[in-house]
Every structure is written in structure tokens, then in C-alpha cells.
Amino acid sequence: MFRHNTLRYAVLVLLASAALFQAFTAEYFGLEILTEILILAMLVLALDIVAGFGGMVSLCHGALMGVGAYAYALLSTTAGIAPPVAMVGAVALTGAIAWAIGAICSRSHGIYFIMATLAFGQMAYSYVFEAPIFGGDDGLGGIARLDLSFVGIDLNDSRSFALFCLVVLGAIYGVSVLILRSGLGRSLTGVMHNEQRMRALGLTVWRVKADVFGLSGMIAGLAGVLAAQHIMYISPGLLSWTVSGEALVVVILGGLGTLVGPLVGAAAFVVLKHELSAVTTYWHLVVGVILIAVVMSRANGIFGWIEARWGDRIERRLSDTTRKPEAKEVLGDA
Amino acid sequence: MLETRNLDKSFGAVHVTRNVSLKLERGERRIILGPNGAGKTTLFNQLVGELTPDSGSVHLAGEDVTALPVAKRARRGLSRSYQKNTLFDGLTVEENLGLATAVHTGNATQLWSDSLAKPEVREIVNEVAEQVNLMPYIHAKVSEISYGVRRQLEVGVALATRPLVLLMDEPTSGVGPEMSKGFHDLLNNLPRDLTMLIIEHDMDLAFDVADTITVLNYGEVVFDGLPEAARGSKLLKDIYLGNWEDA
């Protein structure tokens, strides 16, 4: 069950403040990096919901993001549908596809689940790569951004688009928290802890997994729509399994099953990538070493490490003033 | 309320359930006795659908549920607790009970509302916590409570689905004599219309709680009757002392 604590709120405020500061002060290149972070953060939130709270480690979330991007591109350019409607359509379509993948893969666990999602992702990649309607290797260009001129916002301006992405990310975070705190989210946590028992209690486990996978897919699809609007061009590379793998690295780097951690991971990953790639073309090696260090330290990512070290200490200090008896005191020597 | 007809199950050459026929009336409390390896838990697994019998059938409230999967049987009112605790360790006692109650009340898949905040869920959670003496621990995490209290919670989680038939696999397994006595009261205080089938090795508890006793040996029903008849049974003593061949 997802819970906020003081540290999580503090990190959220810190991240939001840093993003706002960057959005209002950065020049073009800084705004592009910020937008890249925000879109990646949406994707990794989607992945954290299924992997961190449902134990469903997916290697098709990159493909789902790509489905959202291509669906938006086709609907808004080829089909000539208005961008807001195309966005809703793309997100709904990605959610439906993700639901179907979740329903099929929910019967498998562990490495088999990972391989099944990888297969779905690669199928989508191959199809998009080969089918002429998707532009093949050349991809699709001329993708329009959402038109918000009726409220005086020009999303073709990098600053406005970055702020728009920040607002969308905030909304996605809020929705993610609501999902995880809902009956469905609690059941998902129960399934991750003990699937057999949840089934014995009468829960249709595959349905819960599929529903959450579908919702997560909708978030990934929305990230794809914004990625397409950001670059205004998409190519099959967006659906490659390496995008899913990179998202998984970010989630693990930030802190699996914390929601806040993946946001930290997304920021750290993109900044590292840009800073290191300016110095060496082998920046992946450095990221790899950091990932190995994080995994070997047995901490739950960067944020998990911070939370384990200071989270409880902060809570104890804060609760000292308005103190309630702790469970151990109530239980005595139980 | 619960009936098995000629239930049979083998694992390769090992015949673990032999033609078992049981019939439990509504509100009946039956204890299943038998030495280790008698097929008691395997029988439970077939009753709830975790194992498929080779032949025979399971009927719940008059309906043949043999072909139904675990979750559907549970939703029809068949609930079980396990010999080894199968709790949700990272969650509190309240959340453990809440998960089970949410499934029963249809709140387990609701998207925009917290199942544990629903009045109907809270009511059942509190009621069950009272029934199994868990109120003092309601906000404690499973990892913070003692083994004996976890056994109570194990039963509580099964009870929170408000079953017609409750199957309990050695509810006092691993608990001390003091706590075991507490279980006598706990089980005796459960609603009288609840049908219970209990696997138990604790003879005191068995004779205190049971309306009827069934003894299994090598997967076969070798005794089915009243506790009074079982109490002086040489057969039962022989089985538990390992002299079955001579019995």
C-alpha cells in the first residue's frame, strides 16, 4: 500500500521547485533537457505502478509509449483528427492494448512474465518498422503540438511546452497515488505479497493485473503522445526494447515501488546522460557502474537509500511532539 | 452445506485421497484427525480447488463446484486458513483483514475509492478483529506481532470473507499451550451457523470444539462419528501410535 511520508513530500516539493526554476530560467537547451526528464518521468511512473506495486516487471512499456506516439501521429496527421481528440484516442488505444497484454501475461510470473512482455514489445516494434503506414525506418514527421492558443498558451514555445509537461506529470502522479490507494491498488499490493491467498479469498487475480496494466499503459501512452509532440517526429526506435530497458534501469536507479524514486531516477539519468555524453561517448559504461553499485548496495535505489537512512529518523523526530503509542508498546512482549 | 462424493487423488503411485465422502450440515463443526501424511491438507486443497481430484465431486450448498476455480469457490462461500501463515507481511492487521473484506463486499477492484475507507468494509474488519481478539493489534504490522497472534490473524483473514464454510488447517499449529486454550474460546465463540471443517492435532481442542470427528489414514476415512465414540476408540489410538497395521 502506497503511503506518503514527510521525506517523500519534501523530495516532491524539491523536485517540483527545481523543475519550475529550470522552466522559468533555462534557455532552449536546458528546457529540452527538462522536457526529456518530464516525459521519461511519466514513463517510469507507469512502469513503477506495475513493477514496484504489482511485481510485474515489464519490458514492453517502451513499446506502449511508442504505440501512444504513433497512434497520436496517425490520428492527428494522416486521419486529420483534432489533436485533443487524437490524444484521447491514442491514450485509450494504448490502454486497451496494454490491458490485453496484461490479461495474457498475468498468467506468467518472474522471468516468464518479463519474456512475454518483451515478446509483445518486439512484435510491436517489428510491425511498426515493417508496415508502410508507419513510415518504416523513416518514421513520421510533421506532428502537431496541442493548440492551447484559446487560453493564450503557445505550446510551440519550448518553455510553455515544458511547463505543460510538468502539469501533466503532476496530474499523472496524483492519479497514480489515487490508483494505488484505491481498492484496486490495495488488491494489487495484496497480489504482489501473496497471489495464492488473494485468489483463495475470491479475487480474480488476472483481472486485477490486467486492469492495472491497462491503466499503466494509458500513462505510458500519454508519455508517448507528449514525446511525439515534443520532437514532432517519431521513429520505430521509440518502440525498441532498449527504451523499456532504460526505463527499468531508471526505476531501479531511483527506487522501485516508491513512486518518488523513479522521478529522482529520471532526473538523475537524463542529467547524467547529457553531462557524461559531453565528455565521453562511453557514458553508458558509467551509468552501468552506478547501476551495479546501487544494486550491489542492496538499497532500493537512490531514493530508497535516502529513505532507509533518514526516512524513519525524520518521522520519529516529527512524531516526538505529537506522539502516539507505537505498536510495540501496545503489544508488550507479543 | 459441504459434501464430497468419492473424492480420489493420486500423485503418481502414491494414493493420497481414497474415495473420500463427507457430508457437513449447516453449522456443523467437524474435526479431521489423522497422522502426518494421511492426506488431510491434500483433501483441503481439493475442497477449495487448489488441486483437482482424479475423480469424485465437491458440492457447496447443493451446487457442484468441482469444476470451479479457487476464486469462484471462495466467492460462493468457501474460505480457508493455512497451516503455514500466508499473510500479507508488509501490511497491518487492519489492512490484512481489509483485503479479504474488500473482496467479499465487491470493493476490491474499485478504482476511485479506498476500499478500507468504506463503511461496510470497516464494519466487517472491526467485527472480525473482535471475533478473533485482534483489536489490540489492529494497527500493528504483521512483522510486529507474535507468531500466535499471526495464527489468529490467519483465521481472521479467512473469516473476513464471511464464508458459509470455513476450512482451517491446523489453526493452533506451532502455538503454545496457553494460546492454544485461547483458540478453544475463539472457535467456540464463532457464529453457530458457520460450518467449520478443521484439521487439528491438538486432541483437547478437537474434542472441545467438534460436533463430529473424521479420521483419515493413508487417504482413507477410517472413522466418522461423534467425539464420544472417537474418545475411547482403540483404532484412533493405534493410528496415532503408529500401530495402524495391527488395528
Describe this structure in words.
The complex is a heterodimer of chains A (334) and B (247). Chain A contains 14 helices and two strands. The radius of gyration of chain A is 21 Å and the shape is globular. Chain A has a domain at 6-238. Chain A has helices at residues 6-25, 28-54, 61-78, 83-105, 110-130, 158-181, 183-193, 195-200, 205-231, 241-254, 260-279, 283-296, 301-319, 327-331; strands spanning 140-141, 233-234. Chain A is an all-alpha fold and 334 residues long. Chain B has two domains: 1-77 and 163-247, Rossmann fold (3-Layer(aba) Sandwich); 85-162, no CATH class. Chain B has helices at 40-48, 70-75, 93-105, 119-131, 147-159, 177-188, 203-209, 227-231, 234-241, and strands spanning 2-11, 14-24, 29-33, 55-60, 63-64, 78-81, 165-169, 195-199, 212-217, 220-225. In chain B, strands 6-7-8-3-9-10 form a six-stranded mixed β-sheet, sandwiched between helices. In chain B, α6 links the parallel β7 and β8. Chain B is globular, with a radius of gyration of 18 Å. The chains are: A mainly alpha (334), B alpha/beta (247). The A-B interface holds A 1, 178-179, 181-184, 186-187, 189-190, 193-194, 196-205, 207-208, 211, 215, 327-328, 330-331, 334 and B 48, 50, 69-72, 74-75, 79-80, 82, 86-91, 95, 98-100, 102-104, 107-116, 136-137, 139-141, 144-146, 148-149, 157, 161.
